[in-house]
Specification:
The chain is mainly α. The protein is built from eight helices and no strands. The protein starts with a helix and ends with a helix.
Length: 222
C-alpha cells in the first residue's frame, strides 16, 4: 500500500473518530452534565477526538496537495520525516494508548461486574468503549506508521493516566466523590485491595503502551 493511500485511510478513520466523539460527548453531557469529566472513558475519548482533529488538519493538507505547501503548514512539517509533525504523532500514540486502556479495563475489570453487553454496547459505550479504541488502534498501527516512535514514549502514555488518577484519588480521599469506578472506593475496601487494583491498571497501561509502540514501529519502513 502506498504512503498516499495510507494517509487517505488514516484521515478517513480520524474523521470518523472526531464525528463519533462529538456524538458520544453530546449524549454523555446530556446524561451526566459536567460529571462526565470524572470518568476516564469520557476524558480519554474527548482527548482522542481533539488529537484526531489536529491530525486531520495536517493530513488533509497533505492529501489535497500531496505535501504541505502553505507558509504556516510547510514550516511546521518541513523538519520532520513524516507528513505529520512528531508532536502530533506522539499525541496520537498517547490517545490510542488511553483508549486501548479503556477497552482493556472494560474487558477485564468492568465487564465482568456490569455485564459485557451493557459495558460495550449500552448507551454511548459502543463508541467510547469499543468503536473509538478499535478505530484509533487500527489507524495508528497500520496506516500512521511513516516514522518510528522513540523508546520511552510509553512513559508519556502512562503519565496521561497518572494525570487523571491524581485528582480523582484526592477527591475520593476528601470524600467529595465516591468512584467513579469501583477500584476508587478507597473507604469501602482495604488499602491493599486498592493498591492491587492500581498496580493492575498501571501495569496494563504500561504493557499496552509498549505493545502498541512495538507494533507500530514494526510496520515502519526504514
Amino acid at each position: 500500500m502506498t504512503k498516499e493511500k495510507k494517509l487517505q485511510l488514516s484521515l478517513f478513520i480520524n474523521l470518523l473518530i472526531v464525528l463519533f466523539d462529538l456524538m458520544a460527548t453530546d449524549y454523555d453531557y446530556k446524561l451526566n452534565g459536567m460529571d462526565m469529566f470524572l470518568y476516564y472513558t469520557h476524558d480519554s475519548n474527548i482527548f482522542a477526538g481533539i488529537v484526531s482533529l489536529i491530525y486531520c488538519g495536517f493530513s488533509l493538507t497533505a492529501v489535497s496537495q500531496n505535501r504541505a505547501r502553505g507558509i504556516v503548514s510547510g514550516q511546521m512539517v518541513k523538519k520532520y520525516k513524516g507528513v505529520v509533525p512528531f508532536f502530533v504523532k506522539l499525541l496520537r500514540y498517547i490517545a490510542t494508548c488511553c483508549l486501548s486502556l479503556t477497552f482493556i479495563v472494560v474487558l477485564f475489570l468492568l465487564g465482568p461486574n456490569e455485564g459485557y453487553q451493557q459495558a460495550f454496547l449500552g448507551n454511548a459505550h459502543i463508541i467510547n468503549h469499543l468503536g473509538a479504541p478499535v478505530l484509533s488502534f487500527i489507524s495508528l498501527c497500520f496506516f500512521e506508521n511513516d516514522i518510528k516512535l522513540p523508546k520511552g514514549s510509553e512513559l508519556f502514555a502512562v503519565l496521561a493516566t497518572v494525570i487523571y488518577f491524581i485528582p480523582i484519588i484526592i477527591m475520593n480521599i476528601t470524600r467529595r466523590i465516591v468512584g467513579p469506578y469501583f477500584f476508587f472506593h478507597i473507604y469501602e475496601q482495604s488499602f491493599f485491595m486498592t493498591a492491587f487494583y492500581f498496580i493492575i491498571v498501571f501495569g496494563m497501561d504500561y504493557l499496552i503502551s509498549i505493545g502498541i509502540r512495538k507494533l507500530h514501529d514494526a510496520r515502519v519502513k526504514d
